[in-house]
Predict the 3D structure of the following.
Amino acid sequence: MIVDAHVHLLPDRLAAAIRRFFDDRMTPGLVSHGFVYPHRHAAARAALAAAGIDRCWSLPYAHKPGMASALNRWMAETYADDAMVVPGATVHPADDVEALVREALGQRGVRVMKLHCSVGGFAADDERLAPLWRYVSESGHPVVVHVGHAENRTTAAEEIPALGRVARRWPEARIVVAHCGAPAVEATLALLRETRSVHADLAPIGRTLPPITREAVAGLEQRLLYGSDAPNTGLSVEDGVAHVRGLGLEREDEAAVLGGNAERLLARVR
C-alpha cells in the first residue's frame, strides 16, 4: 500500500487561487505548465489514483481567521464516503481554536490536522494553539506542520526549535514536519531523534526532494512518511516513490515509509 501523507485536494475556487499565487509569485519556471497535476480536486484525485496511490491525506490550510470552519466542513462532507481520501482539517490561531478543533475532530470525525505557519502568518509555538495540542495529545490525531515562513515554502534551521518547544511541552502530540523541514533537513532529523512523537514527511518543494540518505535517516525509518505535495508539485508520484526506493532501505522499512507509518498513525486516533 502506498499512502501519500501530503496532498491538497481543496475546493476548486481555493485551489485555483493557490495555483494563481504560484503562477504570480514563485520562481521563474515553476508555473502551471511546470506542475504535474491539475489543481481541481476531482481531477487531481483521479491522477493520484492512476499513479498508484491507495490512500492520501488531504491537508487544508487557512490564510486568515474565520475561514477554517467552512473549509473543514467541506473537507469532511466531500470525502466522508471516500475510501481513498482521508480528509484533514485546519485552524488559524486567531480563531476559537478549542471550538474549531472539537468541531472538526470530535463532531465531524476528521482524522488529521494541518498547520501552515507561512500561509497563516504565525509561529509553530503560538500559545493560542495550546487547545489544539492538548486535544491531540489525548486523541492521537496527527498534526502536519509546515514550519517555515519563506514565501518559497522553505524552512530555515532557526525555525525548527519553535516546533521542538511544542514537542517537549506536548510529548504525546504526534507531529509531522512537512517537507522534512527542507532545506533544514539536518535540524529536522535531529529533532526527531530528540523526541519520541515527532515524524516528518518527504514531500518535495516544487521540483526539489528533501536531501536525505539512508545513513542520515538510520533509526528513523518508522517516523518518515511519503508525501507528494500534489497538485502543486513539479515532481510526480513516481518520482517521489523512486526517491524512497532509491534509499536502499530494508524491505520492511521501505514499506513503512511508503505507507505503513501513515496507516499506523491513523490507527492510533481515538
